[in-house]
Structures
1.
Amino acid sequence: MDELRMVRTMLDRPAPDDAVVAKGRERLRTATRGRRRTMPARRTLWVTGGLGLTAATAAAAVAISTTGTTGTGGGGGGAGGPQAGRSTTRTLDARSILLAAATEADGQADGTGGYWHTTIVDRDTYRVADGGYTVVQQDQREQWTPSLPGRPQWSSNRSLGARPATAADTAAWQRAGSPATFKVKVPGKGLKPMTLSTKPGPTRVDRAPLDDGGHVFWLGRNVTMKDLRALPADPKRLKASLQRWYQGHGTESSSEPMSSDLWLYTVAKGLITEMPATPKVRGAAFRMLADLRAVRAIGQVKDARGRSGAAIAVTERTARAGTLEHRLIIDTAAGRALGEDIVLVKPGGFTTGFAPGSVWTSSTVVTQGWTASAPTKATGSQGGSGR
Amino acid sequence: MTGLADTRTAGRVSDADLAREYRSDPERFTAVYDRYFGDVHRYVAGRLDSQAADDIAAETFLVAFRKRERFDPARGALRPWLFGIATKLVAQHRRVESRHYETLARVRAAPDDHGHENQVVTAVAAAGLQPQLARALAALTRKERDVLLLVALADLSHEEVAQALRIPYGTVGSRLNRARKKLRTALEKEIDVNG
């Protein structure tokens, strides 16, 4: 007597019919089309395998092209008061920018609440298939991450629409008859073009329970809110605790090697821009970056929303997307990051066709802070003034 | 080149490659659906019945899509991961599941069925002993039932069950043994009584 086979026989049901399979597939398709960016967006997706998630805006590209070059020297620990980076035109070196931000962060009071709420606008650029011009797609994502496990995590996502990236792109778009939708190339072999619309999309509010471990963020490995809040506030110890998870490859794919500095930058960027680390830990993260050899200063730049900040950068040479410059834009006076731009220094691979020096993708922090509660099902922020 | 195309032409794309593809392009997640929907549906239908499975199996892939970043190809294949999600969803429908077993327990095999020699032995046995079997299944703890049915319905190996339920390998064996023993005891009692 084989009770396992008896159970199988008793519980055997016919395979689902085609209509059921098709209906389930359509439900999934609707979900996948709604989100080009991975939902719990803890990482920039493009890093290695991330085809199709790219961005730039005309405004950002113009702003960056007018910024001065790096002034090195200065050296040392000159934290140079919080105002220094803002009110003067003096170009700071990377170390000074980062130490100024760290000093500011150190002095801030720690807070906490029911949920850590962030609003971020992602901009991704695409080449229009057969159009010969570039468009920028903007997506706004909000997240409410519970401070305690046991509560769900909420998110609200909305497309803010796509539009031509630069004046030249606008002209090309107009010559094409100013279409309201764009068929854009999705980098990667065998991937079909994707359709973008100039119109903003609906807001989708989602909630999902945390996994069994209560993980909420990614710092080289998945961490809980408790893990995040318990990180060391000493830069050397912070670096050691993060670096334990570095395995010589990128944050997205185990098949692409990544330098230790770039890896640490990637992890620290997430911590600084999106996560509720204590202010002292944020300060330690800035200080850790200040000691990385690969990090250098870009100078004053405007982010995609037109806000000024001091940028530091790390260069990455990729096999598939050309040479990229990751720019962390820092508001030194606030001790915070405004966001990140990824600039195409030398397009290549699937970024061929984009203008060298243009911002390929960016993430901009619009708001962040603790809130008492998450949205209820019916609401969800309708916000989203993506200009 | 790191070849999406290469692996595709080479034949079956591995789960790790599938994961890489949908990380690049979320819409490729439908390939995961195409590969595993039938298996997941069969498993859920066995536990909750077909109608509920139509919805829950589809829901499994929506949840998987939302959590796709958490799937780590280094820790195991997609299939056990999906069954883990399906099992959690089934757990939210405990009433539906127990009603399903009650229904099965009430379906008495027609007396004629017993004597037919041309029937597969296990099928006859299952039919004849169905009330006992269904009741014994319902009487298992949820944890025992999860393990038993992931093996019986989903054909997962012990290691895969461990991955799916995130429990230690050894626990899979002990739960499965306990579950099988309980079923056997229930069935043996019945055989003793009926000769």
2.
Amino acid sequence: MKFTVHYFGLIAEKVTKKSEEVELQLSSEKLDLHEFFEELYPTLRNLNYQIAVNQELNSVVDASMEITEIALLPPFAGG
Amino acid sequence: MKNCFREGPITPESIATSIAHHQVKTNIGAHQIFLGQVRADIIDQKEVTAIEYSAHEEMANKVFHEIRESAFEKFDLTCMHIYHSIGLVKAGEICLFVFVSSKHRKMVQEAIVYLVEEIKAKAPIFGKEFFADNTHVWKENK
């Protein structure tokens, strides 16, 4: 199944895009999205970032979840 | 969901206007304001001239809403405003405006510390620090 993934800040710079549709095979087994994206983009391996699924911080997903959006968020710098 | 983002710097005039709007709320006895200003940091002997802010705006507005709700629960506040810049803000300009009001000083003093720390830790906002030669680094909250 395809999901919309948004990349921000340093992460967008590293993967050279702001968003894309990504094919994810979800099953009843937990999938670690950090591992998934680091395989897709090895350049992410040494970076510090968080993942949000449906705008909530979370990086472990499975087929029971209704996913509308995934976002890769580099360290926050607000304020 | 309220949009807490403002394009470019937050102007001193808009802050003054916001203060003036509260003069009709005569149950307020204390305001506390926090202003975040872009600092001309020296990084590897180069001076930061501006920060370009970007954000997961929808998520950040949700986070601001949750922070607001939790602050209203924790502290006896009359009102609260949060504005954050998006886009380019030059060194010396204001990028964050947090404004809380209450009957008495103690509540707003505690609330402002809580709010600013929560915003810095939880809002998905990113800062690209530009130098005069147009190179950049990415800012990270400590």
